[in-house]
Design goal:
Ubiquitin-like (UB roll), 3 domains, 6 helices, alpha+beta, 4-stranded mixed sheet, 30% strand, 33% helix, rod-shaped
Length: 255
């Protein structure tokens, strides 16, 4: 009897199913109840990627994007930046920035800028999503006032013109020491002392200049002389600080 191929196919399928069940195999069908579990597993797998993205945003917000330094009239910005660990593209750290401020102040003081400071009231730290923007204000110690004492005869402007500094200048120790020496070298000054003080109310330096004057009366000189035509009489007066001007003056009378 001739067998048709398509009549055998169902029988082959039945034998395969019996063989599979006999070997302990299982046939599973994905149901709707399995969908939440698969979604949960998928969510767990994607969580690290989301976490890395958040971490990247946090790191970006802590990067210094801009650093502006003002008030450094005596030293270049490059010199100031060389003292600091905080710089553009570095990670912002309050402790490190405070240490940078100390380094700046020490540098100024070592160079004679006794009252130099970082003006924290005008120093700004602005934090945005894309990073930190810093603005540092340096106060080098400006002279706001000069007080004189001890100059009973010598005029105030005579003393002031001998100083190497004036109101509005930055106070430097070397200028103070040399100014004291200049005053002491004057014939009408016996001693001079310059004391700088910090005025909290104005945030400026107040200079106190105290001098001890050398007072001496005019010295007369008499020089009688004779010439071919008769006698000559010469009278002179010499003053080392005439009218408190700081100038030597001599007056002569000849007869």
């Amino acid at each position: 009897m001739e067998t048709n191929f398509w009549d055998v196919v169902p029988l082959l399928g039945t034998f395969c199913l019996i063989a599979l069940l006999g070997s302990g195999g299982q046939i599973g069908v994905l149901s709707a109840a399995d969908e939440p579990r698969r979604a949960t597993v998928k969510g767990v797998e994607e969580t690290p990627a989301l976490g890395n993205r958040s971490e990247g945003l946090a790191d970006k917000a802590s990067i210094v994007r801009s650093l502006i330094i003002k008030g450094n009239n005596s030293f270049s910005e490059q010199q100031i930046r060389a003292l600091m660990r905080t710089d553009v593209w570095s990670v912002y750290d309050e402790t490190v920035l405070a240490s940078d401020f100390d380094a700046i102040i020490n540098f100024y003081q070592e160079n004679g800028y006794r009252f130099a400071r970082v003006d924290r009231e005008h120093t700004s730290v602005k934090k945005f999503a894309d990073g930190v923007y810093l603005g540092i204000e340096i106060d080098e110690g400006v002279i706001g006032k000069i007080d004189l004492s001890g100059n009973e005869k010598t005029k105030k402007d005579v003393i002031l013109r001998e100083l190497l500094f004036e109101i509005g200048d930055v106070y430097i120790e070397a200028d103070k020491e040399e100014s004291e020496q200049i005053l002491r070298d004057k014939t009408y000054i016996g001693a001079a002392r310059i004391t700088p003080l910090w005025d909290v109310s104005s945030n400026t330096v107040v200079i106190q200049v105290n001098v001890t004057e050398l007072w001496s009366p005019p010295v007369p000189s008499i020089d009688p002389a004779l010439n071919s035509q008769g006698g000559t009489f010469l009278l002179g007066l010499r003053e080392s600080n005439v009218f408190g001007s700081g100038h030597d003056t001599e007056v002569r009378y000849q007869r």
